[in-house]
Amino acid sequence: MVTLQRRSPSRTTQNALLSRLQKQYPNLVPPIIAIAIFLVIWQLFAWTPGATLPGPIQVVQETWILIMYPFYDRGGIDKGLFWQILASLQRVAIGYSLAAILGIGLGIVIGTNKTISKALDPMIQLFRTVPPLAWVPISLAALRQNEPAALFVIFITAIWPILINTAVGVKQIPQDYNNVAKVLQLSRREYFFNILIPAALPYIFTGLRLAIGLAWLAIIAAEIIMSGIVGIGFFIWDAYQNNNVSEIILALVYIGVVGLLLDKLMLWVQSRILPEEQK
Length: 279
What we know:
Elements: H1 9-47, H2 56-62, H3 64-68, H4 81-112, H5 114-127, H6 132-143, H7 146-171, H8 175-184, H9 188-225, H10 232-241, H11 245-273
């Protein structure tokens, strides 16, 4: 008699996890080594006489409570880092969504109409070079409130890469595609959904990826200037005023990690939507 042994679900899960880790091993080891070397060099510089910035060991020691308890909420602006980052991300989501909607729509109009493109190009080139911090006093003077002003700074910073890349993508549609549309006598709606959007989609996603990074940078800059609001930017400014350098460094690490995750999220969405031949 032959006895069949059934593998337990836990053993199967462990084997699958080990197999996945082995596949990712070549991609994980180099970054880990690079980060370890960076931390060692940073710590060595922090131990040199006259060093003014704390090393990684001191940073962890002085911010251990913030690291271990990111969800605390004592009311007002006295909140853990999770709530500070969440408040900033909510502002980014609103401003970025508005920039994406208007940027894609206006980019399509500019890409399909040469007259409008020529009329708006000088204005676009003028405003897109203005740094996010320069928009803060203008937005505060116009809107009179911190929250709408922060949303406007995100919007005005993020819209330009989306608008420009969308317009370029529409202009780069091969003439053969337009000839096919004329031969088939496609309606404007059919041309828009079957030719224009699929052809311009790689350019649109390039603009969206650039814009999400700029939006995250913009909200940090805006919150540093705008006092009295919950957000990671104001958290940094408040830590600076209280001379808590370790808290500033910890916040910078969180900002970098969130920015990386936002970019990876946009890349994942792009990989799910774009056809394989356009990736």
